[in-house]
Amino acid sequence: MHTLLTPLDWGLGHAARSLSLARRLEAEGQRVSWASSGPAAEMLRRELPGRVVHELPAYEVSYPSKNMKWNVARQAWGWARTVRREHRATAQLVEELGIDQIVSDSRFGCYHPEVRSIFLTHQLHPITHFAPASAVYRWQLGRFSEYWVPDDPDHGRLSGKLSDPSGFENVRFIGPLPHLRPRPGTEPFDLLALLSGPEPMRTRLENILLPQLAALSATVKVVRGLPEEAPPPAGDHPFEIVNFADTDTLSSLLTAARFVVARSGYSTLMDLRALGKKAVLIPTPGQTEQEYLAQRAQLQGWAVAVMDQDRLDLSRALQRLSGGGIG
């Protein structure tokens, strides 16, 4: 079986969980090929040295506004064009590589009518608050023959109502796909801050977080979620800051951290749960999925959700998380 994996390029989370899925498929004896774009393709090339990552059209998503309807509306035509282009690119790869199966991690155009085409998602029912957008999403999913959900099927699952299989046939819950694993090697410390996601919201959160982190009486490390060659943030900071951490480094940091502050992207949550970490979760503004997941994690008792990053009081959130404070 020759499988083509095509993770979306909206941040690094899709590439991370696709790497975890690839390990499973290869352990079963399958051959895996890769195609992606943007930051996801860069991550795959770093994690898979010597492997070919075929180039797909990039979505180049940005969230300049807290109003997600506006963000989507201003980019929708461009995204539709990208879907058509990636569909043509997928057809070419199927022919050139002899692909038997496609697993598309949230790329609507990566399917083929003559090849088993699987859509990997934790969102069978996204929260759009806009019926036409929900209808278009459902129509796009109809092009795939199967749906793999990286979660467990029970009611306490991480993805909650987002992955409700009602209304869909051929839904398979394949279990969580955490990318990171417990790894010793870093001395224990208090707080790991993980920045991620599309610009300019990533930078806005960084600018909010850094001075609040500096005011804590705690040992802190920050991973900015940027390419290694990116310039450092302005100013002096009394803690370690790195632009990028590879899988082994990030696994070691997360293993050693007592608490975490991060976005509530689904791939991040899978890693946090797998390593048993408590976290302050700050959804990307306007991303209803992340808002829901952060609130669900808080209700499950292992996180504190801060729903408005502009009103973040990190010290207070950490007091709520720890039951007293850190440091």
Automatic annotation (TrEMBL):
Q: Which GO terms describe its molecular function?
A: hexosyltransferase activity
Q: Which InterPro entries match?
A: Glyco_trans_28_C
Tell whether Transferase is among the UniProt keywords.
Answer: yes
What residues does the Glycosyl transferase family 28 C-terminal domain cover?
238-318
UniProt keywords (A-Z) are: Transferase
What SUPFAM superfamilies does the database record attribute to this sequence?
UDP-Glycosyltransferase/glycogen phosphorylase (SSF53756)
Identify this protein by name: Glycosyltransferase
